[in-house]
Amino acid sequence: MNNGKSIPELFGELVDHLSTLFRKEIQLAKTEAGEKVQQATRAGAMIAIGGVVLLAALIIFLNSIVEWLVVLGLGRQWATLIVAIVIGIIGYVLLRKGIGDLKAGSLAPNKTLNQLRADAHTAKEQI
Asked: Which domain holds residue 78?
């Protein structure tokens, strides 16, 4: 069953196989980390876009809707407060979406970690 190989030769092959396995797992971890960086980049872009939209909305609505509400008979202070609250809610929702995408749990290389645990368990069984 051992094909005429000695115990040291078999042990050497086991070490080689485990070494290859762990190198491949490290490569997988690097690949998955790259994917997570892309995910974080997209989330950062979402936060930036949310901020730009919030700023644009403030400028546009504070210059036009406030005046429209004043024309309708609402006091300038009340019109400004109402518009600021509505635009603030929109900006808050966009920012929370981006921040939620950056949660640490969603950026962890879960597939690789699970595979490394399984590999370590297999290696223990082999030895």
From this structure: 22-126
Q: How many whole angstroms separate alpha carbon 127 and alpha carbon 122?
A: 9
Query: For the segment 35-91, what is each residue's pLDDT rounded down to a tens digit?
Result: 888 989 999 999 999 999 988 887 887 789 999 999 999 999 999 999 889 989 988
Distance CA 38, CA 34 (A): 6
Which residues lie closer than 8 Å to 91 by C-beta, 6 or more apart? 50, 51, 53, 54, 57
Its pTM stands at: 0.42
Residues 6+ apart with CB under 8 A from 10: 2
Number of domains in the chain: 1
Residue 14 within a domain: no
